């Protein structure tokens, strides 16, 4: 039984870091993640550097990594200009993003949901014409920091629109980490009725400690692709001080124990986690990484 892991640490994780992370460190991190057996890595973002200065060196990072033919590297893009930069950097896959809640979408993209669809449709059309694959992210599926509960029909509609644009996979996100396993089953079961499970992925945050439990719930529904971040990088901007994305080390450890095949070497993965923790100079949230480093010191 196989599960795909999409490593989002170099993008979704590092974009939230306050301290500058060197281009060289990002390059080393990506290479270490690939060496650990990860075959899908979101390497950076081509969003305007004014919005996300931490990832302003996207071109330099992609120029410096050791490209592997059996790895899909991708980047987040907001518009055609970002897509063109990604293509020029050698990427064959990009990711689009929008929210399932109106207020979050306005604050995150500065557009209403209705205004966002044509923009994403144009980007998808141009990317597909260039032979690129397009992935989609839907934020705030399980809760919005401004509106609270988000109607399931919002997420179903956004997912449907993205798939209609030619997106090959839609990642359903618990952006602020409020979801519980019961809610994940209820939401996923309804969205799965509209589309095949192999075209859906789960993107969970561990803000309230339910991240891995939510993965288990999504597995029960038939989801087999999950986003995660090395070391648990990516603290939630709407919950200061809270843990962010689920940790790749924790996810791999759990899946291994459940007899799922991830193709990831946990020991090599822990080396990558220890590396970026050292670079950042602070302890990361990953519990498996903490246990490993404590055992090494003992």
UniProtKB/TrEMBL annotation:
This is Hydroxymethylglutaryl-CoA lyase. Gene3D superfamilies: Aldolase class I. Belongs to the HMG-CoA lyase family. One of its GO terms (molecular function) is lyase activity. Residues 3-270 form the Pyruvate carboxyltransferase domain. The keyword Lipid metabolism does not apply. SUPFAM superfamilies: Aldolase. It holds the Pfam family HMGL-like. Keywords: Lyase, Metal-binding.
């Amino acid at each position: 039984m196989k599960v795909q892991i999409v490593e989002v640490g170099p993008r979704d994780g590092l974009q939230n870091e306050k301290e500058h992370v060197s281009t060289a460190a990002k390059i080393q991190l990506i290479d270490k993640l690939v060496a650990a057996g990860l075959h899908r890595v979101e390497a950076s973002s081509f969003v305007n550097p004014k919005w996300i200065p931490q990832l302003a060196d996207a071109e330099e990072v992609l120029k410096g990594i050791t490209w592997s033919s059996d790895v899909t590297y991708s980047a987040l893009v907001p518009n055609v200009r970002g897509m063109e930069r990604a293509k020029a950097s050698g990427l064959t896959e990009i990711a689009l993003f929008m929210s399932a809640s109106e207020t979050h979408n306005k604050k995150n993209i500065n557009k209403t949901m209705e205004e966002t669809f044509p923009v994403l449709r144009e980007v998808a059309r141009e990317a597909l014409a260039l032979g690129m694959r397009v992935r989609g992210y839907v934020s705030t599926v399980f809760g919005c920091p401004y509106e609270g509960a988000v109607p399931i029909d919002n997420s179903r509609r956004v997912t449907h629109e993205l798939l209609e644009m030619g997106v090959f996979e839609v990642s359903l996100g618990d952006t602020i980490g409020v979801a519980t396993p019961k809610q994940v089953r209820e939401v996923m079961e309804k969205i799965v009725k509209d589309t095949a499970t192999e075209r859906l992925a789960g993107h969970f945050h561990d803000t309230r400690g339910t991240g891995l439990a939510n993965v288990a719930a999504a597995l029960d529904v038939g989801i087999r692709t999950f986003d995660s971040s090395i070391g648990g990088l990516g603290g939630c901007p709407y919950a200061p001080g809270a843990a962010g994305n689920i940790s790749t080390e924790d996810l791999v450890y759990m899946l291994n124990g459940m007899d799922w095949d991830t193709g990831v070497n946990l020991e090599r993965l822990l080396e990558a986690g220890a590396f970026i923790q050292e670079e950042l100079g602070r302890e990361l949230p990953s519990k498996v990484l903490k246990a490993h480093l404590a055992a090494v010191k003992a």
